Amino acid sequence: MKTEFSLAQLADPDIAEADKILRACVHCGFCTATCPTYVLLGDELDSPRGRIYLIKEMLEKDRPPTQEVVKHIDRCLSCLACMTTCPSGVNYMHLVDQARVKIEKDYKRPLTERALRAVLAWVLPRPGLFRLSMILARLGRPLAALLPASGVAAASPTLGRRIKAMLALAPGSLPPRGAAGGSVFPAIGTKRGRVALLQGCAQQVLAPRINQAAINLLTRHGVEVVLVKDEQCCGALTHHLGHDGDALARARANITAWLNEAARGGLDAILVTTSGCGTVIKDYGFMLREDRDFAKPAARVSALAKDITEYVGGLDLQPKQQHGDLVIAYHSACSLQHGQKITQAPKELLSKNGFVVKDVPESHLCCGSAGTYNILQPDIASRLRDRKVANIAMVKPDMIAAGNIGCMVQIAGGTSVPVVHTIELLDWATGGPRPGLN
């Protein structure tokens, strides 16, 4: 793709990166076949190729984004299926992230939308506030029937529909709090390693059992687990809202906390059980590449970061229970299969440890969760969830496994089949409790 940035514009490292990404695009359109919004809406501007044109024009002209541009960029899930499909290696992730930062900086949204986005950016990364919000949402659920029903996906979602979506995502009850930051879980038997486990934001409120399962499995196999004190939200939530300053500040705080812990006791890896977080942490090196003080530490942290299944795959697990008749539908989270290119490891681990694993048809398509997307774009998110649940039903599973809390909550909203984390099943297979009972 030909670009026309001025030399002055190209002096900006972000614009220079955008120029490189844009020039890699050859207009082939392969991306349209796997883009969830294009598949649903059939609008070229709701495909990666269409959005690339919009972003190119916006950045080249350096003008405030128009309402039309914002609408189509907002509809992007950042599922990154286009990057898996693209034969030219276009890094759409970094391009759309840059577009979101510009929109947040230069576009004035309606007051109600600004307020909603500000609340999400403030509450979700703070587990204490998020827990309180979930309690309030449970109390407000009876009012959901009074709010407008969802309309067609092509319409701009109203505040009422977004609030209704938030209320629908709230669980019926909240589990007790998990272990606190600063906790250390010693290895059982011969010590084989030492890792930090990301505590997460939403996950530690909605499903602390996931990290508990990871801790149980790791310590059972000789790995000491640390929940690092002063760790913050990874920054993914605010990063995808275009709040670049907040996201980078959180990244720096985490880098400092994790490397201090590594200096004290050594770390073989920083493990992540929420793949949406893992994709961003693995990108810290790029996000802070121009930061003189943090570029190298960020790259080191990105190299240490691993999805839980990447690390567990090297542990030589010892199954104690067989569940050969249990059919597991494996939902491949977008952030795992497209963002981190991890596709086979989770399924192989489940198969090797006694489960019958079945792929979900159209597994490349997003479930509609995508961070805050199911709140900000509830109509499209609901259609994607219903499509995903229908595809899952085709394999007639006893349980659904996934590696991302957002996907788990989203899918659970459309099915009665238990939705559990991959690590919970692996913990069960090696001596832990049966998941999906709470």
Automatic annotation (TrEMBL):
It comes from the Bacteria. Keywords: 4Fe-4S, Electron transport, Iron, Iron-sulfur, Metal-binding, Repeat, Transport. The keyword Hydrolase does not apply. Its cofactor is [4Fe-4S] cluster. InterPro entries: 4Fe4S_Fe-S-bd (IPR017896), 4Fe4S_Fe_S_CS (IPR017900), Cys_rich_dom (IPR004017), Glc_ox_4Fe-4S (IPR012257), Helical_ferredxn (IPR009051). One of its GO terms (molecular function) is glycolate dehydrogenase activity. This is Glycolate oxidase iron-sulfur subunit.
